[in-house]
Amino acid sequence: MRISSSLFTNNLLAQMNNLQSQQTQLQGEVSSGLSVTLPEDNPGAMDQALNLQSQASANTQYQNNITQLQSTATTAGDAMNNLQTIAEQAADIATEANTDHTSTQLTAYAVQVGSLIQEALQAANTQDTRGNYVFAGSINNQPPFVAQTDSSGNVTSVSYKGNTDTPASQIGPNLTVSAVTPGGNTTGSGPAGLLVDSSSGADLFSHLISLQQDLISGNTANITSTDSPNLTVDENSIVSGIAANGVVQATLQSAATAASQLGNSLTSQTSNLTGADMATTLTNLDQVETSLQAAMQSGVMIMNLSIMDFLQ
């Protein structure tokens, strides 16, 4: 059976087109490092890859949430430590006033307490890196503690303008955490207020102001019977807040580690599904290019033979 030159030519062209297609695909794999870039390349692998990408996207959002929560929790924790120090210093002054209660010394103590009130206000109105007030609940765009002063500039009262809401963010599948600590709670239920809490009796600013007034008036008996015990309640409330904040920070650190490990795992799984085996790909590319070169040389020979037949 004789094979016509046209049939042979058509077969050769089909072979060359196929080899060129393989060459293009393999060159793309070498360039991108991926063996699967389109659904038709490997539908099963692409479906799995898209699922992994979806998980990776969610994990990235968890990591972003964790980072923001860690910033807020760290800022709040530092402020709580400052507030505890202030409460301790005020308690020390109350104790010292009972042993050294000359008029001059009591006046000096009152001035010190006035400075502590200002420091406490600054700490209570701490903002995180995003400008949110960390002790305001969900009303975090304005200072939660607002002071009223007399004509001499002394603080006479401090009111809480925040709320008791503790908005949470998702840090993992079915896991949400709040880094918010309300500065006050006078409802008798819900989360404890850090500085003002009707359930425990804490009211740092009110108690500091009472201490200052008793120092000014020389009422050492009230300092002993009322101010000192009240400041202990305030410090205990702050210590409880510090402990809760520590739990939140530990939880966030664990979540950050888990999210990082998951991210690495998802990246590895995706790479295994879609990544090209570079050694094998380069070998296949070399074989395809060799075959294509041979086919092209065969084509040239056929063309020369055909021209000779025509001339004859």
Can you describe this structure in just a few lines?
The chain has 312 residues and is mainly alpha-helical.
Which terms summarize this structure?
312 residues; mainly alpha; f41 fragment of flagellin, N-terminal domain; two-stranded antiparallel sheet; 6 helices; 7 strands; 67% helix
Could you say which overall geometry the principal axes of the C-alpha atoms support?
rod-shaped
Query: Into which percentage range does the β-strand content fall?
Result: 5-15%
Mean pLDDT: 82
Task: Give the proportion of residues in helices.
Answer: 55-70%
The total of helices stands at 6
Order of helices and strands: HHHEEEEEEEHHH
Provide the structure class.
mainly alpha
List low-pLDDT spans: 275-279
The span between the termini is 23 Å
Give me the CATH fold name of one domain: f41 fragment of flagellin, N-terminal domain
CATH architecture of one domain: Up-down Bundle
| Cross-sheet strand order for the largest sheet | 5-6-7
Any idea what the CATH superfamily of one domain is called?
f41 fragment of flagellin, N-terminal domain
Can you describe this structure?
- The protein is 67% helix and 8% strand.
- With 312 residues, the chain is mostly helical.
- It has a domain at 54-267: f41 fragment of flagellin, N-terminal domain.
- The protein has a 3-stranded mixed β-sheet with strand order 5-6-7. Strands 1-2 form a two-stranded antiparallel sheet. A two-stranded antiparallel sheet has the order 3-4.
- Helix 1 (5-32) runs antiparallel to helix 6 (278-311), helix 2 packs antiparallel against helix 5 (220-274) and helix 4 (204-217) packs antiparallel against helix 5.
- The longest helix is centred in the N-terminal third of the chain and has 57 residues, at 43-99.
